[in-house]
Amino acid sequence: MYRYVFGPVLSRRFGVSLGIDLSPEKKSCNFDCLYCELEKAKPIDKIENEPLVEDILKEVSDWLSKNGYPDVITVTANGEPTLYSNLSSLVDGLNKIKGVSKTLILSNGSRINDKNTTEALKKFDIVKLSLDAADQKTFEKVDRPLKGINIGEIIDGMISFRREYRGVLVIEVLVVKNVNDKEEVIKKIVDACKKINPDRVDISTIDRPPAYRVQAVDNQTLYNVAHMFEGLNVSVATRKDGGNVRRIHLDKDDLLHTFRNRAYTEADIDILFDEETKDLINSLIAENVLHKLKVGNTVFLKAQ
Ligand code: SF4
């Protein structure tokens, strides 16, 4: 059974992804975002009992040899991946074995002013940083960061990082109803994004079961927000199909590990898994091991 890799996951933005969890024991994040798809947790600034780089790479190699190369190998952690102290060695190792896959990191951007972190980030093919607010008050409301984290400093760090980074930089703005959807809040994010100058801005809303009782904005609001980013490359995130992905077989342990890390829609399951795995999923639903959760009009399956 794998301990650090999970998936594949069908990402709305990046295609078929193999996930790497750097904090399998518990959520480790210096934010506690209202919309987080992990459970709510007090923000912390380190990962306890960090996994060894060689153990992670061993699992990734094994997965790739059995299942082929996904669009992206995604370092996500069970929280914030830049808290991992060996990120630089990890990405060096991934870049050696990634084949045709791209390396991707999904970060909240909070450590963008830390030199070791930016040196590691520069080695990824794609860096996605979140930016849910550009003013401190809204930032604290939506992302609930550890005390002392300042969004103005993060934005300045993102501007400097962009100047040095040669890969693909994506900024993701996640819009939560009645929290960061006001015009004046979005305008400040737009101004910040224009200074950062990313390759793409992804606008999205809550898509998976959130940590707190918050709601998605409707599609019209999402498109209105996207319109305000005129002049930048904007993508309103939508689901992608699996392309030529090979159907994956997971045994029970790996399936439960994967479904604890990520909620899956029925459409995702249909695209990603082979028939035997789908039968196993159905029997786990019948046994109440996998649970259905509804977000808006979409039904997700998740393991506790
Ligand atoms: S930064 Fe990511 S992992 Fe951390 S709380 Fe926010 S959504 Fe969750």
Number of domains: 1
Q: Can you identify the CATH class?
A: Alpha Beta
Number of strands: 11
Just name the CATH architecture: Alpha-Beta Barrel
Q: What's the rounded overall pLDDT mean?
A: 91
Task: Give the DSSP E fraction (strand runs of 2 or more residues).
Answer: 15-25%
Q: Could you name the CATH topology?
A: TIM Barrel
Radius of gyration: 18 Å
Largest sheet, in brief, is: 8 strands, mixed
- Strand order of the main beta sheet, please? 1-2-3-4-5-6-7-8
- Stretches where pLDDT is under 50 for at least 5 consecutive residues are 238-243
Counting helices, strands and paired strands, the structural category is alpha/beta
Shape: globular
Helix content: 25-40%
Q: What small molecules accompany the polymer chains?
A: iron/sulfur cluster
Order of helices and strands: EEHEHEHEHHEHEHEHEHHEE
Could you give the distance between the termini? 18 Å
Helix count, DSSP H or I runs of 4 or more residues: 10
Kindly report the name of the CATH homologous superfamily: Aldolase class I
